[in-house]
Structure prediction request, 364 residues.
Amino acid sequence: MVEEPPAVVDGSPAHLPDGGGGAPAACDASAADGVAVFASSVDTGARQAPGAPPYAIDGCLLAYVAPREAGDASGALRLRDLGTGEELLLAPAAEAPRRPALAGDVVVWEATDNGARVVRVRRGGQTQTIRGPFDHAGEPRVAGDAVVLTGWLTADERGDTDVFLYEIGQAEAVPIASGPGQQRFPDISATHVAFADFSEDPDGRFDEDARDLADIVVYDRRTRRAVPRSREGKQSFPMLGAGERVVAYLEWAPSHPEPKYEQFDLRIGDITAPADGDALAARIEQSVQPYVLPEVRGELIEWVERPADGNASLRRRPADLSAPAAEVPGLSAFELFGPSASATITVLAARSPGGELELRGIAR
Prediction:
């Protein structure tokens, strides 16, 4: 069992860079060990949002969905300073917070507000809902100065979606990717946005059928120009964490297993080069739930491998593919959820048979 967090005075611990002042303390990976988390696919059997772990780390700050209390359907979202152990409540369990993402002192997450999906952003001690010309929004990712998200243009979850960019301090988010069908699952860096474009799909949407088709599109934040990176089959869930010129993504070609996350290729390439030169970084098998995306951050790619005939493992490979993948030792006895990483620490949830879902921190 994880210990109760230290008390928070006036809602603003002195060491959290969230309006309380003071620099965050130094930390090491073991500071994340034993933090209990809530994941709907593990704790309730409900489907997990695609690719979204219920925790995120940047520097020494950890945002995570805590275990639910009696009578609650979800857990509360908390921000913990791993250097001091102090915590701040970001969102109550009643809002069903999920999909947190962190960049510096900016935290974003999905929540439910009066039955609608919304994206919240917190910076400098202030939390707000991101508004824009959409019916509801979700799937947020964050860089230090901006948030990217998916906006549904109608109340229909299977309907048309666009990608929106919210720059910190703006009145509302603005569309940067529109057109027929769905544009979804964006990621953002200081220089680019990448997203999946389902306009070539027979029904124009992400719905995990055997005919799904999509391409990755890269948007240059400086020139405001979007460039498709066309390949045969389906490419989705782009990741921009390995440097300004690198994009990684999941690919299903030519086969389409159902559900999609049971088997896929992870590819990585130069944003400025043609997509047909993108390299195969890994063939990944996840025979059972939970399904969570690989993590591409800095010099490493990390993912959970869950074969049908063996134990789950956390695997790492250099992002430049200069060495083969290697297993991270010490985790083979656990059910593993999926990684999130800062520059120096990777966290993932692990559960022993019959135990709680708790984080493990691993130095990078």
